[in-house]
């Protein structure tokens, strides 16, 4: 199905109408075991990753090795390489590589409903898949965990682990994360051709299709530090792995694995060394034993059997580019100054010229809430959440008993960012996701939630309001009576309610299970469908068609002219709304090191800030989503982990708050 069919779908639609997880890998440039993790300097909890990056010669070698393996397998493909913050360093197309790819269709056994295709069965340029795979592997990884697109596939499906024998188990811990890093995000930056090295080149960059679940994307490491990712698209099928119990022989994954040789993730931090709910994650079904003789000479393939290709909005095709070192001003991330944040471990996003992109500020919504969050209150929430994170036991990092590393975002009720802070080595994906989570909690808990969703010009979006009200059994639901954390909205966004239980109806924000796919989750997808369509049209037209606006969704503008969910919504846990008495005044979102940890950091951050400043805090217990019993099942609000802290043996740390 081509782009024109994709563009028509919203019109047809209009007419018809958990777990802790997330890791990343490491490895050194020689493929050996990295040096032991150094101890933090006095006064610090964390060790910032070394400021290393991919050189032009590194990228040339990576591309040549991947091309050599793909050629040996008779499977010409497109190879993309990015740095850690998503800058595209190379896109190389082998002669004969498919120019297009098609997203997978149904996961269930039902008859497809054309009105709910969303992004299933869509044919787009294959280069977009290669870039999305590389971005995914780089963004999900850190010096403490190495994740691949095969890992991503495992953690976004309706049952975890995904396999024919696992129906009845809850959905993947990062269910819905694929719809982050979106091309319409107002947080992720955009490439400007000819401006490599300028402020326009800093990250974190957007991904053309969000995060990928199709095997063939692996992280790249130098001396144990993640420096980027490689993505290979060769078979024209952009899908996912529905069965982790078998071992695939995937040509794309083998080509990507060849590309990583000398830049591979350290064995000790690869996904299979990390568990979620007692299940080891998957990193790669391809092994080095299956590789052909490495071909590392870029000169041998430069214009021979293939060439660099331009991808509008991502790479100009003229020459390979060197990556930037994460933690430097040019990367878009750096240590905070004392005036920006009090904790000396804190990292902030920077504009490339020295200024914090999201400095702590007061809320902009006094007209709606009476007394907006003050800058001092926002600072208290961020600082208290950062303290909780620094004490928390990481879920997805090696070595065991490392402190958690996340990104923390605070917003007002308009969705305006009031401050973003992170630990030094938190995975990059959590930057955009933490803001998504905060905005989602602020929207669903807002008195205008129903009106906002009903005001979307696409009736497919508006229809979810009626479904939710019928499902909850309250015609006035989504009018601010109930406080929703992301765990709550996530429960309502699963293809089974309760989560995973086969034979039960889907939640009102989800597609039915026989129509669900990673490319069609329900409300989450519907909100950004037209934005992705517009962006694909821009890329495929070579820039002749306009690019998507730098704000996701077509919801009515909040006062001030911005969308309340300007980087999309998120549907896995890690956020809570913030209240002043009984009045919603904002929300906090956390992402990067296990969803129970994310819940705890956000919940205790809001609570402890209230204790500190005496004026704000979590939602009153009487209005929290866990007061709702739907179909005999209580909705969830937050879930805090067992034995959560490194410095105490305290349990049930969220109980009674």
From TrEMBL:
Q: Name one Pfam family in it.
A: HbpS-like
The reply on keyword Signal is yes
Keyword Signal assigned to the entry: answer is: yes
Look up the coiled coil feature and give its residue ranges.
Answer: none
SUPFAM superfamilies, per database record: GlcG-like
Q: Which InterPro entries match?
A: GlcG_carb_metab_protein, PduO/GlcC-like, PduO/GlcC-like_sf
Q: Which UniProt keywords apply?
A: Signal
From the UniProt annotation, give the residues forming the signal peptide.
Answer: 1-20
Instruction: State the superkingdom.
Output: Bacteria
Protein's name in the database: Heme-binding protein
Its taxonomic path starts at: Bacteria, Pseudomonadati, Pseudomonadota, Alphaproteobacteria, Sphingomonadales
